[in-house]
Amino acid sequence: MMLSQFEFVLFLITVVIVLWIQKNNLYRKLILLTANICFYCYWDYRFCLLLAIPVFVDFYCGRMIHLSETRPQRLRYLLVSVCVNVGILIVFKYLDFFLESFKPLLHAFGFNVRSLDLILPLGISFYTFRTLSYTIDSYYGKNEPCNNLLDYAVFITFFPIIVAGPISRASKFLPQLNSFSPGLANLQTGTRLFVIGLFKKLYIADNLGFYVDPFFGSPLLYDTSTAWCVTIAYTLQIYFDFAGYSDIAIGSSRIMGLNIEENFRFPYLATSVSGYWKRWHITLSNWIRDYLYIPLGGNRRGKVRTYVNVMVAMLLCGLWHGAGWTFVFWGGCHGVALCLNRMAVYRAKAKKITHTNSFFVTFLKWLLTFLFLSLVRVPFRSPDFKTAWQIMGQLFYPHSGVHWINPFAVFIIITTALFHILKVYDLTNILELPEKAWYTPAVLFCLAWLVFLFYAREFTPFIYARF
Amino acid sequence: MVSCIFAYVVTNMFMDRLIPHEYDEALGKYMYAPNTYGRARQEGWATTFVGKHNTFAIKDIDKNELPKIAIWGDSAVEGLQVPDEKKMAQQVSEMFVQKGWPTIGVGIAHSANNLVDYIVDLQEYELLIPHIISHYIVFSNVEDDTLPDRNTGTERSRFWYKDGFMLFESDNRRPHQEIHDLLGKLNLRMVSYFIGKVSRYRIQFPWNHSEAIARTDREAEEPPYNKVDAWEFIFGELRKQTTKPITLIYTPALPHIRRGSIHLKDSSQREKDLITIAEVCQRHSIDFIDLTENFNDFFLKTMKFPRGFANTFPGRGHFNADGHRLIAEAIFLHELKRSSTNR
């Protein structure tokens, strides 16, 4: 059951009604946990047991970290938590990838290996990061200990965010469980986000997918202009798909009375790659910053070490997205761009250069950033390097083939560009549908109508749900 | 109110429109309501005038005294996806005008029509529409359009097989006719302007598209009867209906993109079937034109497909304006060749 499916809407309505009727907070949490388990079982009941492991292990480790008096003791429990969670993640997500990648080497040493073909558990990358953030924060004393297993289980298994985030922090989520209720105000705010999310996913992203997917299946059949149009369309598709998912997840949580951190802030307005990571998948970039980049030393240990830390963080970020070298390459490209960005900052500081923010310079920076983001999406989306290389060749070397410029994709590209231009000049207030505005319900109805009329003919899962 | 206006405008600008059906006294069955408009938005972008007796882009065909070439077919001939002037029948008329021969092409079609429908219709239409000089039947699917029981979409006439071949006729009352009639009775026909043509799949649970593609790619199963016998029966019946020349035009779904490559050939079984069909046609004095080569040549020269639109997948679906032109050219040239001696 994906968040954009009709089944989910029925499921959410049922859960909200039951939560609304029940006034006792303990029972509400029990209802929520039951709903979480049902949601996960609907996908595959066998993996519920796997999901139970981090719940019990990290709840126990978290408590023991708080009860431990010495640092080595705390470290021991932290290591247990990290090993268990990362171990599960490696086995289910990366083992086959590593076995395949190093097959010749292993053969040379006499190991006869073959793929295990394990099913990737739903949301494993996301819930692993959430549960790790709890134990790591506990180790550094950044959060209060969770004394209630029920609360912790609800946090880890919370159904709107288990599939693809946002990677909510325990320190933000757990205190809300002491008192939460679906009210009319929450219903209004949540529904607004939910409908906007559905619109982004079902109307925009899925219909763009109809254009993008066939191209990536056989790119050499198409001409250069089609390749450019598809590349930009995919850059928008992945944004609308993931931002749509996040809006639905945040909206669903809000309807139930729980607040989840925002995940996107107009990422394609960024004028640098570092700016982009402050706007795109914010909860993941914050996680990588707090639990990977800073513990590695961040920018406190000299320039070279900073570049190394950035590269390590981004390569792992790429690997987190998928068990494939194309994802690692994508992460590496972002790492290089971030290093270059940082180099420019160091240089400017050393030469005491003050940046001029003229329109032309800002536009040029934006254009370069957007082109970079679009081009590195090519290997991200391609099944292998060969295909990615072919598409790159097509983009920069005139190639004849089938010409297919989809009018819907062009419409979305132009409309998104206009919306972003309005945002630059702070004129999007009306378009962002403020909660109290009189026209918001009418526009939401129109968006829901468009979703109903134009949702894609085939079911398309969320792109990030497979990570 | 704002939402309603929006829904009305969006539906009327961007949604297909369902063409209502009305009982046609002359033909004794339900046909597209004459003098209405069909609107295609999700495949192609066009508005089509629907004339009398399922004719397209032409008004009062029964009052027109010029010689006519009847072009029969299913949704391919309807051509709702292309503007009226680009439809094959209109392009045929244009070619004859340029040639200086006053002859017009008339597209007579209904979505999901089958060869068997023309057996029932040829005679009736020759009485209704004056001066038909020849018939062209356009078909795209060797199995579904010619064999008994294959095309389940048609509600008009059926070619049946049960211990022998037989035909039966219905009044073509469409499944949605009841809804349409009810809306009319309640003075609520306006409702249809808000929902456009919301097809069945839009209110279904998501379905597996790859399975559907696999289904269309699959070779048709061999029927429990001899296919040659079926074609002998159907072409024989067809020939009995008229003394005017009949030409069958095969318009394959080629070239198309499948599994990452461009296919220019039908399956070997289908190619064999086409040879058989051509032979059966010859035995019944029916001309047969296979447009496979024309379509492939056009693609290889221009890298454009005869089917598909910018808003759909290239090479799949209905004919675009180029496809209609290629068929029109084939009809025009064949008609020139055939009738130049007679004129």
Report on this model:
The complex is a heterodimer of chains A (467) and B (343). Chain A is mostly helical and 467 residues long. Chain A contains 19 helices and no strands. Chain A is globular and about 65 Å long. In chain B, helix 3 (88-99) packs across helix 11 (321-339). The longest helix of chain B has 19 residues, at 321-339. Chain B starts with a helix and ends with a helix. Chain B is α/β, with parallel strands linked by helices and 343 residues long. In chain B, 40% of the residues are buried. In chain B, the strands form 5 sheets. Chain B has a 5-stranded parallel β-sheet, with helices on both faces. A two-stranded antiparallel ribbon of chain B has the order 1-2. Chain B has helices spanning 2-14, 75-78, 88-99, 115-128, 177-185, 192-195, 209-217, 227-241, 268-283, 292-302, 321-339, and strands at residues 21-24, 29-32, 36-40, 46-50, 68-73, 104-109, 132-139, 157-161, 165-169, 246-250, 256-258, 261-263, 287-290. Classes of the chains: A mainly alpha (467), B alpha/beta (343). The A-B interface holds A 5-7, 210, 214, 217-218, 221, 223, 400-408, 439, 442-443, 445-446, 449-450, 452-455, 457-459 and B 1-3, 6-7, 10-11, 14-15, 195-196, 198, 201-202, 205-209, 257, 260-262, 303-305, 310-311, 313-315.
